[in-house]
Amino acid sequence: MYWTRKHVLVCTASHCMQKGANNVAGRLRIELKRRGIDDAFMVNTCDSIELCDIGPNVVVYPEGHIYCGVQVADIPDIIASLQGGPPLERLLVSAEAPAERKREAAYRAALDASQDGVVPAEAFEALVAEHGFDEGWVAEQARRGFIGRKEVDGRPVITITSKARTRYRLTVAGSEATRSE
Ligand code: FES
Prior knowledge:
CATH class of the largest domain: Alpha Beta
CATH superfamily of the largest domain: Glutaredoxin
Distance between the termini: 36 Å
Bound molecules: FE2/S2 (inorganic) cluster
Oligomer: single chain
Structural class: alpha+beta
Mean pLDDT: 94
CATH architecture of the largest domain: 3-Layer(aba) Sandwich
Strand content: 15-25%
CATH topology of the largest domain: Glutaredoxin
Number of helices: 7
């Protein structure tokens, strides 16, 4: 590594791997080498950064930019950005990004309607639908560990996991969800 200009971390934990993170990391390394700039930009793989539903995720330091949903086709633009171009707005995610705030609002509404983070599955689906999220999104949230499914008294319920609460900085006080800054 020595004294590289930027450090790129590609999450290759299981959820991002399922969506092609290994190819992204491999091709990025190859492209940097092919262009003779691999001494300036270091690529490493890393464990989950807990944005598992929107991967594959890539973090660029020192800026701390997080790119989500990265595919091999994005690599030329990522390299252009590494070389001094602007950050890739279409892939950039942060706590304040509109898409992330939308997800946060859906979870906030669900937590508001929950009892200690548990809400009937039907109610959860109806609430998140009001924020524009469909059954496929709910299934993805379950697959990536942001919600759990179980039955209580024979009725399906959704549990909002600590992974979701931490990501959206939400805490439950009684039945009231708040954002902790
Ligand atoms: S597996 Fe990549 S963010 Fe979780």
